[in-house]
Amino acid sequence: MAKHFSTLQHDVWLPYKFAVGPVFQRFYEGLKEEKILGNRCPQCNKILVPARSFCPKCNVDMDEWVEVSQEGEIVTWMVAHEPFFGMPVEPPFIGALIRLDGTDCDLLHLVGGIDLSSPDTIAKKVKKGTRVKAVWRAEKEGHMLDIQYFMPM
Amino acid sequence: MGREVAIIGSGQTKHGRRNDLTYPDLVREAVQAALRNTGITLDDVDGVVSGTMPSMMEGVAFTHFYFADALGSVGKPIMKTETCGTTGMSLAQTGYYWVASGMADMVLVVGSEKMHEGDSQATMSTVLEPFYLRPFLTGAPGVFSMQGQQWTATYNIPEEKTREAAAKISVDHHRDALDNPYAHIQLDLSMDDVKNARLISYPVRLWDVCPNSDGACAVVFASAEKAKKICAKPAWVKGLGFCGDEYWYGDSNKVAWACAMEAARQAYDMAGITNPRRELDVAEIYNPFTFVELLHYECFGFSEPGRACDDTLAGAYARDGELPCDPSGGVLCTNPIGATALIRVAEAALQVSGQAGDHQIDGAKLALAHGLGGVSQFNGIMIVGSEG
Predict the structure, then answer these.
(1) Tens digits of per-residue pLDDT, A37-95?
(2) How far apart are CA B308 and CA B267, in angstroms?
């Protein structure tokens, strides 16, 4: 019989308070009004979303705000089948990169509003290039999940 | 360019579920194995480099204190390096820089992880900030599944072909691991076992995914003068590269993946390699997921873009192929994360010094070791050769 080796249980619980900063604060206020806000880089002219304080490529401040389209195309996707620690959404769910119309980077979010019971039925409806639009929750908290998901059109 | 640097030996623990000993004792097991392999003593070591995953994996934040006695670092300078999955490669490169700079002649480099003590996927989720990326990425499988899907969609590779190639990689590596005494998961699987396994995150199934492993690895880096004096067959560091992506996950293309290609370019330039598929004899790719290994064949210039599945199915990267990849079984069979990329370096060095045992690639003279980490954010490479 294999020898039993004992272990000792120890849990770590640590609270944190993250500073939001003025740019994300405005972005979250936009979500409460059902607006998706990005900003335009004055150097490369790209529109990046979510809004951020500076362009990562050009390393210059971005002060010009743009309300971007709530429709776009799926760039890539996966279906989460296993629950993960601290996740706000129960599996199965579809995580995806979405290129909103007129923007120059991909937004990470969920695709939903379709039958998620089988990967094969999902693969018929969700592909690279599938058009999707934002579906909003009735109650807003100023959080990315104020957009419940992006639904295939 | 700094001084010439060699790897004079290494040690690994038996990887797997190791609740038979404490974490520091696991670290010591690798250190002692490296001392036996090289014939040196701790008195010969000028400095120690140590690293793990982020502290949430360990449950102890200050690991170089926790491991101080096990590492033999008391009374010596110690450096800690941590870059998530790339940690082991960053450790190796830290050791290399230290010796190349001339500030040390012999450096002990140690990576470790005891993944069964914590919750690896919970730790992986804390690698992401909680408000934008974390809710959508489900630890590592979500990230790599999306990257794999993006790759197949970019080149219109039929799903059946990708599935077949990924299954072959899984079957081959789980069998390769049977010849590696340190490997964690050693299995004889069929193609159907892999293709019909439980879904983790579509399209990734159970045998496409690496395990949680407990394990440690120690590698000794030395100056040319020391290496020639005490080691019959050193593995000479011929090239290295490291490159990272931005934080924002949707900002860059992860298929024609700039940071992987750039890391390889840096390493090939330094090593004088122009045709990696022909010139390299063996590669230890950081392959926590089958699809990730396929993608890297293209990023590293082994296969033309969109052709990795065809080349894999033709056997190019199998043990008896043109460029054997992960003959140790790779990350897919053994993943104590803080040690994992350092194991790639140790395995590459074993191959070019003819010490890889039952998974030795005959006559291997030039080998590539790879580390991948962050949220698909970092790539690092070290190339080692039998000739100084």
Answers:
(1) 999 999 999 999 999 999 999 999 999 999 999 999 999 999 988 887 878 888 899 99
(2) 21
SS3 (DSSP) at B356: coil
Query: Do the chains contact at A97 and B150, CB–CB below 8 Å?
Result: yes
pLDDT in tens, B148-168: 999 999 999 999 999 999 999
Q: In this structure, what DSSP letter does residue A53 have? A: S
| CA quadruple B84, B89, B95, B96: dihedral sign | negative
Whether complex ipTM tops 0.85: yes
Query: pLDDT digits over B317-360, tens only?
Result: 999 999 999 999 999 999 999 999 999 999 999 999 999 999 99
**Angstroms from B163 CA to nearest CA on chain A:** 14
In 3D, which of B68, B63, B39 has the Cα closest to residue B51? B63
Is it the case that residue B136 has pLDDT exceeding 80? yes
Whether the CB-CB separation of B142 and B201 falls below 8 Å is answered with: yes
Q: Mutation test of the interface with chain B: which of A17, A39, A48, A78, choosing the one with the most B Cβ atoms within 10 A?
A: A78
The phi, psi pair for B101, rounded to 5°, reads -70, -20
Q: Which two tokens stand for residue B346?
A: 């140790």
Give yes or no for a contact between B88 and B338, defined as CB atoms under 8 angstroms apart: yes
Show which residues on chain A lie within 8 Å of chain B, measured between beta carbons. 3, 5, 7, 10, 12, 18, 24, 48, 50, 52, 56-57, 75-82, 84-89, 91, 95-97, 105-110, 119, 122-123, 127-128, 143-145
Residues of A with CB below 8 A from B56's CB?
12
CB-based burial of residue B84 (10 Å sphere; 0-12 exposed, 13-18 middle, 19+ buried)? buried
Question: Cβ A86–B149 below 8 Å, yes or no?
Answer: no
B272: left (phi over 0), alpha (psi -120 to 50) or beta: left
Mean pLDDT of A82-110: 91
Supply B378's token pair.
Answer: 């970092």
